[in-house]
Design goal:
Layout lengths: L1 H31 L4 H11 L12 H17 L10 E8 L11 H5 L5 E12 L4 E11 L4 E3 L2 E3 L2 H23 L6 E8 L7 H8 L8 E7 L14 E5 L6 H14 L3 E3 L17 H5 L5 E5 L18 H20 L8
Parallel strand pairs: 3-6, 3-7, 7-10, 8-9
Antiparallel strand pairs: 1-2, 2-6, 4-5, 8-10
Helix pairs in contact: 2-5, 3-5, 5-9, 7-9
Length: 346
Amino acid sequence: MKKLFLLLWIIPFITQAQVISINQDNTNLIYANSINIEDIKKHVYTLASDSMQGRETGTIGQQMAAQYIANHFRKIGIPPYKRKTYYQEFTVKSKKHSCKCSTCDADAINRRKNPSEISGENVLGYIEGTDLKKELIVITAHYDHLGAHDGEIFNGADDDASGTSAALEIAQAFMDAKNNGDGPRRSILIMAVSGEEKGLLGSKYYTDNPIYPLKNTIANLNIDMIGRIDEYHEDGDYVYLIGSDKLSTELHNISEEVNNKYYNINLDYTFNSEDDPNRYYYRSDHYNFAKNNIPVIFYFNGIHEDYHQPTDTPDKLNYEKIEKITRLVFLTAWELANRDDRPKLD
């Protein structure tokens, strides 16, 4: 009788312990599922609206977009970095010409000897971790685009309002987790960068003048164009991954494991090849981190007919695709943030 009573007394505690374990296992999914199409659409339609005038770096439109991003960080409770500001301002010289006017002789302009000064802002949302807070994951997306030329606005919905919206949603999911006591062990830096279209200027400025030590940065996840379907795929259940195995096989394996466990998206490595003539590995903001020996993953949907055209508008995006890839990036960042060890360099 005593044994039966003891068993009946223990069972509720065993059940409770099991429930706690299950809840802990699914915590990441709770926050991943908070990333939703409605919020993504709101961000995309705002950033890619005509009022932003194509968000060309150094223009009022780009500054309006920066303010929108900073306001989002403020709204979800991310404090200004180092308690001062959300902006990392930069002024750099660049010879690159990004105008897409049909009348421009871009090749001649690109050869100009006197570089022009370009001013812009990176917008930083720093979410402090817990026991491993000195280490961090940087999640980047460029919010600038090509501006307005020949009376037409280059809205840049896919390039890269899609990636920027994903970064904003990831920021909110991590802040929800932090506010509920489930915050990441490592810190998360969500950084919307400008100057990408003019030569990766914003990310280069950050890696040359890091706010947080590069030696403590364990990985960079870069999101640049995830809202369209290219000519090589029939549906949106894919994403090109570039760079995941260049510096750390372990990072690549973690990425694969997270995808296999939760989503089984077609991870396409076509453009990851060393002899890829497109050289996408060198063409977006992750490369400035890779140059500093920081493992990277570049999430990308490929080129389409509206790339760098005024026809890259919000109505053409596949928002289910953006939602799924954004959740994948979040869960990958979650795994990296909460593991005991950082990914090993090869």
